[in-house]
Model the fold of this input.
Amino acid sequence: MLRPVKVKALSGFRIWIAYEDGVNGEIDLSDIAGKGVFKAWEELGVFEKVYISPRRTIAWNDDLDICADALYLELTGKSVEDVFPNLKSLTQV
Done:
């Protein structure tokens, strides 16, 4: 599992995230803001409360989080196979 070590909210529904392997950068989450559970971000101050949960997800509260691995893939442009070479696909089981 890729471990995030720092996260902070930026303007425009963007976050800056850093991982223990040195990878860091900005992720734009504006495309999901206001949709489904992410509608909560429209409430004043909610988006700015981003933190790393004990489960190592990127979270805003106990009910609202995003997989840190998925954000790593988006940030680096790598595929699942690149990052997790020992992961077997369901077709190989």
